[in-house]
Each structure stands twice: as structure tokens, then as C-alpha cells.
Q: What sequence folds into this?
């Protein structure tokens, strides 16, 4: 069976930098993610939905004709990566449901290449996802979830309705740092920052993100509100 994970050797967006990225279809997202039903920053974007459909079906429409879509492997992407690439960003869209074993194998390969794995999963409570703790962060939507994830050995991220400001801050007993790229340092990219990596220096820091995307406003009640 064709694996439904597509790797690109480069990324043109400002935030990530020129790095290797991967995508999976919406079916790879756990039902426990409340953004799956609407308002996800990825699936609200038309081109991401098209990409997800290509990976899901293995087909693409070219000039009105259905043709096979080549799902690119990690090895293919790594061979063509930019010289400046320091990071592989897993699942710009999608998650790891049904693909944990292969994703762990990818992470090991990436680390052997001297590159940094960055990934987030809403499926951190699932038993099958536990081997990814070494490479991925738990995607949390409240500080209560952060505490739960940390108690179970996960590094974490959390979505806020607004910025908490620069530098380390302690919120509900957890050390939190806002992502500098979205919040205050436009010259930084994931390729140069790498705060979201999981290692001895970063695993105890929870990385905060302001809710973003087309569904940000309607999903503000689903994430951490600093007034509560």
C-alpha cells in the first residue's frame, strides 16, 4: 500500500525557511483535535486541501484530466534539499495517525543526516504515538493539556488567543516562550530558530503560538485564553 506522506525538498514560505517539509491528508488527523472539524490553519487553506486530496487519492487533475500524483519519499527530498537546510518540518498539514512507525524511522534517518526534526501531534494521548516523544511535541490547546502532556513525558506547544510577550514566562507553573517568528522577530525562520526541537535544552520549554489562520476568530474559544 502506498504510504500517504509526501515530502517536498523545499518550502517557499517565509516562516519556515528553505527546508524539507512533509504533508499528510486530513484522514491522518485524530478526531480528538477540535480544529479538525473546522478552523484548522492548514485545512482552511485551499491549496493545502488540494495537496491533501492528492496524497489521499494518489491522483491529481492536470488540465481537466486525472493523472497519477507522485508521492515523494523522504530520501528523494533529502537528495534535493538546499545547502542551507537544517530542519525537516513534519506535517505542515496532517498528522501521524496510522503512520507512527514509519515516521519514527524517518526521524532517525533525518537525525543521522545531521538535521533537526520538528513536528507536532494532536495524537499525543494515543498509545501508538508514544515513540515519537523524542522528536515531536504535543499539540495542546490549553495549559491544562500542557500539564497532562508534560506529566506523560511530552515536550509541548500551546495555542493562545494573544501573545504573552517576549522571553520566558511562567504560566500555571509551566515555562512558556512565544514563537518569535509569528510574534516579534520577522527575520527569524524555523530553519534558524529551532526552538521547537526536542532536546535537553528545549524539552522543558513549552512553545506558545497565537491562534492563526482563516478560522482563528471562530476558534478562539477552543484555545488558551489568558484572561481565564
A:
Amino acid at each position: 500500500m502506498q504510504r500517504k506522506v509526501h515530502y517536498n525538498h523545499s518550502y517557499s514560505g517565509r516562516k519556515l525557511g528553505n527546508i524539507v517539509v512533509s504533508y499528510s491528508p486530513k484522514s491522518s488527523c485524530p478526531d480528538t483535535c477540535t480544529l479538525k472539524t473546522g478552523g484548522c490553519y492548514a485545512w482552511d487553506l485551499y491549496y493545502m486541501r488540494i495537496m491533501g486530496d492528492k496524497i489521499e487519492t494518489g491522483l491529481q487533475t492536470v488540465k481537466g484530466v486525472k493523472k497519477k500524483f507522485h508521492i515523494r519519499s523522504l530520501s528523494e527530498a533529502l537528495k534535493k534539499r538546499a545547502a542551507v537546510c537544517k530542519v525537516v518540518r513534519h506535517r505542515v498539514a496532517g498528522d501521524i495517525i496510522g503512520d507512527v512507525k514509519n515516521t519514527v524511522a524517518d526521524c532517525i534517518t533525518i537525525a543521522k543526516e545531521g538535521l533537526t526534526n520538528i513536528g507536532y501531534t494532536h495524537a499525543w494521548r494515543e498509545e501508538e504515538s508514544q515513540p515519537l516523544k523524542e522528536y515531536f511535541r504535543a499539540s495542546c490547546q490549553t495549559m491544562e493539556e500542557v500539564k497532562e502532556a508534560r506529566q506523560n513525558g511530552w515536550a509541548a506547544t500551546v495555542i493562545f488567543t494573544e501573545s504573552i510577550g517576549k522571553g520566558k514566562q511562567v504560566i500555571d507553573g509551566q515555562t512558556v516562550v512565544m514563537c518569535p517568528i509569528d510574534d516579534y522577530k520577522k527575520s527569524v525562520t524555523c530553519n534558524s530558530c529551532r526552538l521547537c526541537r526536542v532536546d535537553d535544552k528545549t524539552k522543558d520549554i513549552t512553545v506558545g503560538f497565537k491562534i492563526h489562520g482563516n478560522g482563528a476568530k471562530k476558534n478562539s474559544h477552543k484555545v488558551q485564553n489568558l484572561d481565564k
Q: What stands out?
A: The radius of gyration is 17 Å. The chain has one domain: 6-222. The chain has a mean pLDDT of 89.
